[in-house]
Amino acid sequence: MKIPIKTIVPCLLFACITTAVIAQQESQNPNSNKIKGWQKLAEGLEFGVFRSPRISDIGDSLIRVLRIDPQYFTFKLLTVSALKDGGSLTVKDWCRRNRLTAAINASMYQEDLKTSVSLMRTKTHVNNPRLSKDMTILAFDRQSSEVPRVKIIDRQCDDFEVWKKKYGTLIQSIRMISCIGANVWSPQSKKWSTAAIGIDIQDKILFIHVGSPYSMHDLIDFLKALPLNISRAMYAEGGPQAQLYINIGDHEHEFVGSHEINLNQSTNALFSWPVPNVVGIRPRTESDNKGIEK
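User: That's the sequence. What structure does it adopt?
Assistant: Structure tokens below.
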């Protein structure tokens, strides 16, 4: 959704331009290892950059994916509605203030600039109690070791009334790839940048960012064709608010989105927008396993 201009908190121009230059160099270098496939950032954490099969009119036409093994990383929902003071932050600032390794948009949000459009809650805080018609729910903070650490619940195949009791954190959003592997979006002419969250056949979580604008139907087909082994996916955010930030070791990356194709507005991609809700990760510790691991 669009945020009023007065709420924009631009990131430092130097940092933004640096990110744009790095992205341009990657897109122009056909021999880059990152573009060929996966780069290991840490145990249980890989970063992949893949060329889209269709060149976009804006941006570098690259699909960036952070692949996370929940055995090594724990997931956390951060929401401005849970704070006693303060407002929305860029995804980068959410990470820096909470010592996260990486983060991505959690979901779209309402005009109050804090409430998710659908169900969003943790063990201790409810951002939005309403279960909408959307079919997918990202679930983590498991209540027992008998279920996956992280799951994308699909109401077509999973009984939500059963599964919702098994996890402390639930984030509902729009389905992209169904539990039977189907592209559930119809072809359309509108195009925009996208942040999405997926899961592969090994239960590894995918933070997906595509800065160049594509129609959602086409983008889903691209994702299914890539070597991601993606099994389910849900929409997190679109347009200039779509962000992915990674900071581990010598690797720091910030990726932001853009408006629907409009050459006069393409410079908006150089700025990070404040967003109220993010999903972040940090290395798993022994305390994360207390009470659920045998």
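The helical segments are 13-28, 33-36, 91-98, 160-163, 216-225.
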